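Researcher: Let's walk through a ligand-bound prediction step by step. First, I give you the protein sequence. Second, the SMILES string for flavin-adenine dinucleotide. Third, you return the three-dimensional complex as structure tokens. Ready?
Model: Ready.
Researcher: Here are steps one and two:
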Amino acid sequence: MENERFDAAVIGGGIAGYTAALALKNFKKNFLWVGTEPFGEKLLKAERVKNFPSFMGSGEELAALLEKQRAAEEIPFTKAKIDGVYAEKGGFLLTSGKTVFSARSVILATGVETETVKGASDFLGRGVSYCAVCDGSLYKNRTIVCELSSENYEDEAEYLAGIAKKVYVLCKYRGARFRAENIEASEDAVAQIAGEGRVSGVLTKGGKRLEADGVFFLKNSAPPSVLVGGLLTEDGHVKVARDMSTNLAGLFAAGDVTGRPYQYVKAAGEGLVAAYSVHDYLHRST
Ligand SMILES: Cc1cc2nc3c(=O)[nH]c(=O)nc-3n(C[C@H](O)[C@H](O)[C@H](O)COP(=O)(O)OP(=O)(O)OC[C@H]3O[C@@H](n4cnc5c(N)ncnc54)[C@H](O)[C@@H]3O)c2cc1C
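Model: Step three, the predicted complex:
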């Protein structure tokens, strides 16, 4: 799969990404649908969905129906977190650790991060990172803080411990276990980033002050402008035209990532429009 060049890559396993993938399947495109989880964590959290036409039930029930349809339509899902999207001649390269995917067009459907840390965007590229493999080597023999959203990122913290002198791991979940001796782990989270010009440390929600040269937020999603260099955003959302195109030719966006209202029907509708626009774009650029 890695050497294959897809017509389109859809990033994000939520309802926007799924609807785009469903439409691309109907267009008979050769596409990659990639995300951390099919149907996203947010769908499973909704206690009661009251605004989805013809559906009455919980988010979990809606996810089960979507999964039934996905299986019947034979839409493949690739489980991976994409850590970078790079424009190349006639398309894009997507990286996930050491794995590289290639596609002629991209639909970004990565949702929104509702919880953000004060100061994080000011220190991007100056000590704040969202990707251990991309930026880890910058912290050889230095001290870093890693905030982990789930146990899925423990391997990345261990990887960083192999490079850095000391790693403070702040876990937003219970029961974390690490092998590396230079990891000091606690159940805590970053409250604020400190520093002038560059990161010098963090204040934690638990009230600790940790001196560090860098902070890694290891979680499912990163801000869209971090994921895709040169992507135009406004108030943290990807700036799109009515056809879901962005300022980068061949790159479209759909769902919560483009702005409010944050709702399933809006996300699904935009996923559909983005797939139509990809279809047109591929036709025009052949
Ligand atoms: C508790 C709760 C209840 C809600 N109830 C309702 C409701 O009743 N009705 C309603 O209309 N809306 C509701 N919403 C809002 C709804 O969940 C969102 O509008 C919808 O999920 C947006 O879909 P999306 O596909 O744009 O993004 P998401 O569902 O957020 O999906 C994006 C996916 O992309 C993944 N991702 C992000 N970055 C990457 C990356 N770099 N690589 C790979 N994958 C990545 C994320 O992990 C996620 O799985 C609710 C939200 C919450 C939190």
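Researcher: And what stands out?
Model: The helical segments are 15-26, 40-45, 59-72, 132-135, 154-161, 224-227, 264-284. The radius of gyration is 19 Å.
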